[in-house]
Design goal:
Layout: E1 3-10, H1 14-25, E2 31-35, E3 40-47, E4 50-57, H2 63-71, E5 74-81, H3 85-94, E6 105-106, E7 111-116, E8 126-131
Parallel strand pairs: 1-4, 5-8
Antiparallel strand pairs: 1-5, 2-3, 3-4, 6-7, 7-8
């Protein structure tokens, strides 16, 4: 793993959260995008070399909607940048971590992603991400 790529924060209202984080961080979000497959709308802020991803549910059945219902607003996941997502998936499986999918999926901000089950990673939802243009399926 190279670095923490971003922190994902679940929010009830993306517009209000964008205003709050713009004031807090002193910068505007650089991107907003919808990930239909996951039922989420995201907004990204750049903070030094890291990013903050705000996540709003775009439908009531999405994982973010369920997270907000159970836990309320707050940190949803920590994403780590990796050089070779397939090799990292294998390494982590060999170490006993449980992946939530067998293959990386297209994610927001030009990444391919895979998540680790929180029960296998100390209660934290971990995302591995790699630039989509560097990924070979």
């Amino acid at each position: 793993m190279r670095k923490i790529e971003h922190l994902g924060i679940a929010v009830n209202n993306l517009e209000e959260a964008n205003e709050l984080y713009t004031k807090l961080l002193g910068v505007e979000p650089y991107k907003q995008e919808s990930v239909e497959r996951e039922g989420v709308t995201t907004s990204f802020f750049k903070v030094g070399e890291s990013k903050i991803e705000l996540l709003e549910a775009s439908n009531p059945e999405s994982p973010i909607a369920k997270f907000l219902e159970k836990r309320g607003q707050g940190i949803h996941h920590i994403a780590y940048a990796v050089d070779d997502i397939k090799a990292e998936m294998k390494r982590l499986q060999d170490e006993g971590f449980v992946l939530l999918s067998d293959e990386p999926k297209p994610g927001a901000d030009g990444k391919v992603v895979v998540f680790l089950h929180p029960k296998s990673s100390g209660g934290v939802l971990v995302e591995l991400c790699m630039d989509q243009d560097e990924y070979e399926a």
